[in-house]
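Q: Could you fold this chain for me?
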Amino acid sequence: MPTLNMTDQMTALELARRANAPEPFKIIELMKLKNEMLIDIPAYECNSGTIHKTTQRTIGKAGEHRIYNQGVGTFATQTKLIEDHTTILDAYSRVDEKMLQHSGNRNAARQSEAVGIIKGMGLTQAEMIITADKTKSAEFDGLKVRRAKVDNKLVFSAGGNGNKLTSIYIIASGPDLFHFLYPQGSKSVGVERQDLGVMHVPEKDRPEKTLPMAVEYFTAQYGICVRDPTALIRICNIPEDITGDKLIDLIIEASYKMAQGATTYSMYSNDSILIKLDKASSGKANVVHTQEDPWGKPITHVRNIRCRQMDVILNDESAVPAA
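A: Sure. Below is the predicted structure, expressed as structure tokens.
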């Protein structure tokens, strides 16, 4: 199995493992089945409660050559303050206590329900990361909102028109690049599971009647931070009939605009894009190839970019306009 690099070691899953937090580890492991960003993107603790305050630095040319007995001027970089907020994703599991008692294996029956809910939370989280919009009461902007206009710098168009389009997001991960957030002081990477015992809960359709329910509470508190704008690039306006070769060309061109020096580069798209890339790999084996990720799972790579599947990136996007 390949060696974990520093970015891989800081994913929420690895942090939960390192903190000896078995329940959060199990939850994140299930959530990643529906949100593959959790496999690659590192997570860092907020530095101000549930808010993470950082600076975005613009680096231009600095320094000047001089000759003996001649001075030089001073230089400074430009910075912009950024505040990123975390959001709270909650869910309750309620199962009739008598049904659990009569199931033959109470723990297995309860766990089966919990697994389905946690996987659903992973799907909700993935959708939030892509589509969240602060103007619509979300705590942060998702990738789609952050990259909403074609500028040929951070957002590139594949040339499609209409409303049957999709996108690819390419991410360079790292503490000064793109990463997830969890609340300051959390010992469980922002993820918890609580057994609230048996509670007498009003019936959904007849609230005047109650029944005994075994209740569990699940929560995941998280956010995203993009410290370097070039750590997040979108290829949008991808039509259904695009060829695999054209996709590969677009991904390679976009990769040259990305932040350099990251240990992990990953791209996220739906299965229709990944199928096209896999089919094109036979003719471009030197560019598109399959290799194991650090956890031993064979996945497609476009050069050094891991290709991950996120089905919340749909094929019904409308054309993204120019800036």
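A (continued): Residues 6-57+81-309 form one domain.
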